[in-house]
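Backbone-to-sequence.
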C-alpha cells in the first residue's frame, strides 16, 4: 500500500512539474496596453481618439501563436500636452504616446537620461512646409504682419512647435528675440483668453488653436508656419521595453491607425463631427485640417521631411537650452513596424514614401460644373444641414455661391479658400482677396476675384505684380448678403 501511495505521489509531482514547465505561449497571459493621447491636439486623432472611440485596436490584436490565450487590458489616458504624457511613459505607466515633433524629441531625451529608450514608430500627420502653427492678434488689432510687432509682447506655449516657429520667424526678420520683442509663456487656454480680452499684442499657437481662435471670431492669424517653410509633424512613440517584448502588438496598433486614416479619408465630415463630440473642437476646424487639401497631410510614411522636422526640433530645443542631450535620430526613428503594418494592410509603403499628395479635392464645381483643376484656387462651403461639404473651382465661384445661399436663406457653417502662394487652407471670412477687371471692365461688379491670401502684405504684393486690387475680409461678409 505504501508503495502504491509512493508511486501516486511521484506521479503527482511529475504532473505538477510538467504543468509548471508548459511554455508561456500556451499559458494565459494578461497584457496591458496603456496609451496616452492628446485629444484636443486634433492632428493626433488617427493615433488616439478615433482608434479609441471606434474600438479599432481590438480588431487587430492577435489571438494566435504566442497570443492564443492572451487577455488584453487596454487603457487610455488623455493629456492636453506632451510633457505630462512623457512623464507617465518614463514612469512606465504608459506604453504608447501621440505627440508633436518637439515633445517627441523631449520624450526620447527623457528616456535616454533614464538609461532606457523610446522609439518613434511613425507620423500621423505632417506639413512639409510647416502649416499648422500660426501667430495671432486680437480681432480688432491694427497689426497686419509680424514686422508690426517689434517691441511688442508675444506669448507662446514654451517648448512647443509654435515656440520654435516663432523663434525662426523672428530670426528671419533679423531681430534679437531677447531685445526686439518680449516673449512670454502662455498655455493655449490662457493665450486665447488674453487675445479675447486684448491683454496681449500677439500669441503664437499650434494645432488646432491657430485656426480655432480665428474661427471663433476673436483673433486674426497674421503669420502661418508655412511662411518659415520648416516641416512639422505629429507622430507615435512606444517604449523600447514594450516594443522588444510585444513587437506584434506595435504593428497591431499601427494597423488600427492606418484604418483610422482610411476612415477619415472616406468621410472627413463624419469623423470631424466625432472629434467635436469628444473634444469640443468645432467640426469645421477639424475638417480644415483633415479634409481634402487640409492644412496638414495625414501620412504614415517617414519621409525625409519628417526626419528634418525632428532634427530641427532637436536643434531648436538646444538653442532654447531645454536639453543638452544628443538624440541619435538614426536609432530613435525606427520604420520597421510601420512597414510591417502597411504590408499587412496591402499598402505600398515605398510608393507612398515618394508621394506628397494631400487628400485631393476631386470632382466638379458645385455651382458651375467646371472641373476642379487647381488646388490653390479651390474653395469649399459646408452648408448647415448638409452632410457633405460643397466644392468650388475658384474663389470667385465660392463667393458667388455664398451670395446665392444667403439669397435662399441658407446658412454656411464655414467657407474655405486657399492661399494663392502657399496653398494653405484659409477661412474665407479671414482672407484678403485680389480682384482684377475682366477685359478692362469699368464696373466694379464685373471684377473677378482671382486669388486669396492670408495676409494683406502678400495680397498687396501679388496685386501690384498682377494688376489687381486688394479686397479685405469684409468682402466675404458682403458677398454673403442677399
Amino acid at each position: 500500500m505504501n508503495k502504491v501511495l509512493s508511486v501516486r505521489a511521484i506521479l503527482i509531482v511529475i504532473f505538477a512539474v510538467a504543468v509548471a514547465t508548459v511554455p508561456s505561449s500556451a499559458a494565459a497571459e494578461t497584457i496591458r496596453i496603456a496609451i496616452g493621447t492628446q485629444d484636443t491636439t486634433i492632428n493626433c486623432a488617427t493615433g488616439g481618439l478615433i482608434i479609441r472611440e471606434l474600438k479599432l485596436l481590438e480588431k487587430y490584436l492577435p489571438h494566435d501563436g504566442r497570443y492564443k490565450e492572451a487577455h488584453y487590458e487596454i487603457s487610455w489616458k488623455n493629456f492636453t500636452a506632451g510633457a505630462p504624457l512623457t512623464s507617465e511613459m518614463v514612469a512606465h505607466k504608459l506604453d504608447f504616446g501621440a505627440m508633436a515633433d518637439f515633445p517627441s524629441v523631449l520624450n526620447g531625451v527623457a528616456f535616454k537620461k533614464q538609461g532606457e529608450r523610446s522609439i518613434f514608430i511613425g507620423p500621423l500627420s505632417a506639413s512639409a512646409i510647416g502649416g499648422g502653427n500660426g501667430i495671432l492678434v486680437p480681432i480688432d488689432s491694427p497689426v497686419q504682419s509680424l514686422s508690426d510687432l517689434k517691441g511688442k509682447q508675444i506669448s507662446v506655449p514654451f517648448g512647443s512647435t509654435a515656440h520654435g516657429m516663432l523663434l525662426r520667424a523672428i530670426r528671419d526678420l533679423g531681430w534679437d528675440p531677447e531685445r526686439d520683442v518680449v516673449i512670454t509663456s502662455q498655455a493655449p487656454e490662457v493665450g486665447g483668453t488674453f487675445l479675447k480680452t486684448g491683454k496681449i499684442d500677439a500669441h503664437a499657437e499650434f494645432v488646432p488653436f491657430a485656426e480655432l481662435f480665428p474661427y471663433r471670431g476673436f483673433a486674426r492669424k497674421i503669420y502661418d508656419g508655412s511662411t518659415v517653410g520648416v516641416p512639422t509633424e505629429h507622430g507615435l512613440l512606444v517604449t523600447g521595453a514594450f516594443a522588444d517584448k510585444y513587437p506584434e502588438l506595435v504593428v497591431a496598433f499601427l494597423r488600427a491607425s492606418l484604418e483610422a486614416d482610411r476612415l477619415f479619408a472616406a468621410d472627413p465630415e463624419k469623423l470631424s463631427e466625432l472629434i467635436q463630440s469628444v473634444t469640443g473642437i468645432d467640426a469645421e476646424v477639424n475638417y480644415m485640417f483633415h479634409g481634402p487639401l487640409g492644412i496638414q497631410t495625414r501620412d504614415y510614411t517617414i519621409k525625409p521631411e519628417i526626419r528634418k522636422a525632428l532634427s530641427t526640433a532637436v536643434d531648436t530645443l538646444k538653442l532654447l537650452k531645454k536639453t543638452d542631450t544628443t538624440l541619435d535620430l538614426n536609432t530613435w526613428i525606427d520604420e520597421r513596424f510601420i512597414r510591417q503594418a502597411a504590408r499587412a494592410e496591402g499598402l505600398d509603403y515605398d510608393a507612398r514614401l515618394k508621394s506628397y499628395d494631400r487628400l485631393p479635392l476631386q470632382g466638379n464645381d458645385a455651382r458651375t460644373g467646371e472641373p476642379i483643376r487647381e488646388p490653390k484656387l479651390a474653395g469649399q462651403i459646408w452648408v448647415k444641414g448638409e452632410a457633405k461639404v460643397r466644392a468650388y473651382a475658384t474663389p470667385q465661384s465660392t463667393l458667388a455661391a455664398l451670395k446665392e445661399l444667403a439669397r435662399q436663406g441658407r446658412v454656411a457653417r464655414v467657407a474655405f479658400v486657399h492661399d494663392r502662394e502657399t496653398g494653405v487652407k484659409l477661412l474665407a471670412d479671414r482672407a484678403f482677396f485680389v480682384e482684377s477687371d475682366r477685359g478692362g471692365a469699368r464696373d466694379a461688379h464685373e471684377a473677378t476675384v482671382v486669388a486669396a491670401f492670408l495676409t494683406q502684405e502678400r495680397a498687396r504684393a501679388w496685386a501690384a505684380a498682377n494688376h489687381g486690387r486688394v479686397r479685405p475680409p469684409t468682402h466675404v461678409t458682403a458677398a454673403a448678403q442677399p
